[in-house]
Write a structure and sequence with these properties.
Keywords: Membrane, Transmembrane, Transmembrane helix, Transport
Family: Belongs to the cation diffusion facilitator (CDF) transporter (TC 2.A.4) family.
CATH topology of the largest domain: Alpha-lytic protease prodomain-like
Subcellular location: Membrane
Number of helices: 8
Radius of gyration: 25 Å
Helix content: 55-70%
Pfam families: Cation_efflux (PF01545), ZT_dimer (PF16916)
Shape: elongated
CATH class of the largest domain: Mainly Alpha
InterPro entries: Cation_efflux (IPR002524), Cation_efflux_CTD (IPR027470), Cation_efflux_CTD_sf (IPR036837), Cation_efflux_TM (IPR058533), Cation_efflux_TMD_sf (IPR027469), CDF_Transporter (IPR050291)
Number of strands: 4
Amino acid sequence: MSKAMKLGAGSIAVGLVVLGLKLLAWVMTGSVALLSDALESTVNVVTAVAALVAIHYASQPADANHPYGHHKAELFSAILEGVMIIVAALLIMKQAYEGLMAPRVLEAPIAGILVNAGASVLNGIWCWVLIHQGRKHRSPALVADGKHLLSDVVSSVVVALGVLLALETGWTWADPALAGLVALNILWSGWKVMRQSLSGLLDESLSEEVLAEVRRVIGLEAVGAVEAHDLRTRAAGPATFIEFHLVVKGEMTVIEAHEMCDRVEAALKALIEGCVITIHVEPEHKAKHSGIVVL
């Protein structure tokens, strides 16, 4: 089992434990805000399962029907997670509205907050692991899962403050009002997850910082070429695709041009692990006198 798969399975286990703790906190207090927190954790479990399935599918090798691989499966998972986050936010808003219409006195709030705090600490540790490891292994599904959990941690802190405020002041409306704020925060989190995933599905280019490094490497390693132009890049989950035209002198042999391409490819793969490179070699009269200057 790959590292990403193990992390995906770990997310399901952590999500179930956190969900159990938050449901216990809600039962202990009757807090609408704590119920909203538990509802979000239900979504965490569902999306963790979806992420695990997507990671498994994305890891499958290229085949006749998918010659570029299955990497984008993780992006679909991240979009599903964004949708589920938004659904959770709408459910929480419903609970908050009902709580405002019929406020209730909280029971055993301190004990419930402590139980909820334990769940939040566990969530906080795991979200850091997911974001760190997701970026390391270039897994959009793990990063999206980690960012979702981070929004859950923020929500839990706000919920705890709301319950304490209601307890201290006797303002029964504060509890459902804070639940509504939690819902708004979750909505924003869901939108950000979806926006980032859509960028990947639409084949957005690499960042300007990475592109600058790619150009630098090509310029340094393609010694003997005339120029490189029409550079195009895209990322699909953990895979990165780079393609460009390399103009060489007319007297250069096929073997020499091939060795040059091998040298450039090796340098680019050292820069970006696992990248897929396509180089179109052209004769000197195809030069556009633009693009990447070869040193």
